[in-house]
Amino acid sequence: MDEQQIFRERLASIGAFAEEKQGVLTEQEIRNYFGGITLADEQWDMVYRYLETLKIRIAGRKETSDFILMPETSSAGDEAASGEDGDGADDVLELYLEDMRQVAPAVPGEEEALVEAAAAGKDTAVKRLAELYLYHVIAIAREYAGKGSLPVGDLIQEGNVGLLTGISMLADRSADTSPADYLIGSIREAMELYILELGDQSNIGKRVEEKVNHLHQAIQELECDLERKVTKEEVSAFLNMPLSEIEDLLRMAGDGLELE
């Protein structure tokens, strides 16, 4: 995995880390969170801008922008962001749509000028360009959410990360790629990576469940043969499975499986 992908993944997950810190992070905590990868100044700027959109306070740092990419949500919005179906998803989507309605449309020639200024790192241009592309983030999120039981709020957040990443890398795009295609591609890529991660997590969960069931069957078979409770060591030998893995599976199974 290259550093750019690691950066995007950490940027997408820093919100959850901040929640554990009651919504306040220090500069050192942020630096430590991105430890191990080398970030350019514009990437650090994007980190701080993104934290501002999430309403995360940085101790000792004055807010520099008023991005609207991440509106404050009600409890219904929180449910939608965590994957709840029904009215909650509609509520969080409506919050984003309401923000989108507040964005003034671009005047002729404005987007081209914004692309040039944003590529040069101008914060006001980055903000305005991100606002203009909020429509695309919402539209693409609705498209992917409609293909399965995917949380639209989470898709929008991932799309926003992709959008900010794309804006920060506009100067690096190939000459035959238009700014619009590049930014929309960045939005899609971020959402698709998120969907892939959800699928990987689901597959991991299924494999763990299969192992727990296999362990349960083995314990029952062994106890039936020996006519007594068996130990972890005996099950480990019986299955030719490391003891540490047996212990991990027992923890995952909770009270459902007990050994001597």
Explain what the structure shows:
68% of the residues lie in helices and 2% in strands. It is built from 12 helices and 2 strands, in the order H-E-H-H-E-H-H-H-H-H-H-H-H-H. By secondary structure, the protein is mostly helical. The longest helix has 48 residues, at 179-226. It has helices at 3-20, 27-33, 41-53, 75-81, 87-101, 110-119, 123-132, 134-145, 152-168, 179-226, 232-239, 243-253, and strands spanning 24-25, 57-58. The radius of gyration is 24 Å and the shape is elongated. Mean pLDDT is 77; it is low at 64-86. It has 3 domains: 1-66, no CATH class; 69-208, no CATH class; 209-256. Strands 1-2 form a two-stranded parallel sheet. Helix 4 (75-81) crosses helix 5 (87-101).
Note the main sheet.
2 strands, parallel
Q: How many β strands by DSSP?
A: 2
Unreliable runs: 64-86
Helix/strand/pairing class, anyone? mainly alpha
| Count of discrete domains | 3
Query: Termini, distance in Å?
Result: 43 Å
Please report the number of helical segments.
12
Order of helices and strands: HEHHEHHHHHHHHH
- Widest sheet: strand order? 1-2
Please state the CA-atom Rg, rounded to the nearest Å: 24 Å
Shape estimate: elongated
Strand-residue proportion: under 5%
Q: What share of residues is helical?
A: 55-70%
State mean pLDDT (0 to 100 scale): 77
What are the key terms here?
260 residues, mainly alpha, 3 domains, two-stranded parallel sheet, 68% helix
